[in-house]
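Narrative of accomplishments. A recurring question from our advisory board has been how the design workflow behaves on a single, concrete structure rather than in aggregate. To address it, we present the structure tokens for one chain from the evaluation set, followed by the sequence designed for it. No filtering or post-editing was applied between the two.
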């Protein structure tokens, strides 16, 4: 178990280093956009396009590795938030690169110079972007959001919620496709636990039938969306009441070494562990 934890920490640190490299590239692209605004005779488009291509590839690679870590290690709590945080931050950095490309394209279409009276505001905006990136990274690495403004905290919280919800919906859709491929397409989807009290998740789950027309979605009323710990305790009580106990000697750990194979008989799916 200790070896697995160390490997997870090492891979997370490597992801974070690549995320920092993306931040540097994004800030360089913003600086190039300001240069292009100041000096219309200086063509930075080729350099911007090259950096954008690099930024796009880095974001896709990091997102792929983050999904792999979620699948292999099954992180929870703080570890889960850090992996999802990396995935979401890199997505936002890639979007900064897209905006810089849009700025350069707009400059190519403009026939007149940008007035000197607006350039100080543009410099201020560019400096603010850099400060926001630095503040977000400091909060992430130092685990302290006290330096962020109220709006920045709200933005980060909303971004995390979007990333976490997106990861859950992606897993659900992947499971639907896998079962469909195995010949036993699910007819219904039931969401339970405290997580389904999240309004954004409920909204996105309700949209699933639009993509998968033959699946029914069941969401419990909010008063029944209890905390996971409370539900686990309730289930444990029922097991104990019926004298079903365990010696608790099994070292629980998320792994892909026993990926289940699904086969169908009638309406029932039987899971057979691969040896």
């Amino acid at each position: 178990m200790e070896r697995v934890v160390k490997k997870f920490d090492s891979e997370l640190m490597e992801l974070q280093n690549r995320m920092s490299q993306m931040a540097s590239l994004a800030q360089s692209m913003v600086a190039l956009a300001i240069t292009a605004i100041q000096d219309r005779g200086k063509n930075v488009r080729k350099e911007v396009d090259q950096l954008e291509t690099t930024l796009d590839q880095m974001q896709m690679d990091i997102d792929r590795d983050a999904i792999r870590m979620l699948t292999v290690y099954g992180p929870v709590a703080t570890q889960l938030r850090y992996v999802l945080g990396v995935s979401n931050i890199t997505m936002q950095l890639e979007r900064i690169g897209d905006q810089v490309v849009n700025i350069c394209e707009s400059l190519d279409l403009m026939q007149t110079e940008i007035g000197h009276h607006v350039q100080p505001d543009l410099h201020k905006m560019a400096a603010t972007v850099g400060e926001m990136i630095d503040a977000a990274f400091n909060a992430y690495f130092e685990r302290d959001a006290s330096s962020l403004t109220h709006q920045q905290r709200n933005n980060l919280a909303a971004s995390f919620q979007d990333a976490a919800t997106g990861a859950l919906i992606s897993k659900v859709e992947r499971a639907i496709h896998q079962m469909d491929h195995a010949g036993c397409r699910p007819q219904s989807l039931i969401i339970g636990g405290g997580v389904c009290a999240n309004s954004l998740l409920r909204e996105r789950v309700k949209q699933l039938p639009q993509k998968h027309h033959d699946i029914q979605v069941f969401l419990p009323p909010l008063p029944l969306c209890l905390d996971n710990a409370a539900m686990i305790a309730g289930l444990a009580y029922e097991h104990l009441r019926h004298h079903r106990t365990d010696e608790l000697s099994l070292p629980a750990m998320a792994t892909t070494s026993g990926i289940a194979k699904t086969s169908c008989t009638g309406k029932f799916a039987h899971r057979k562990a691969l040896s």
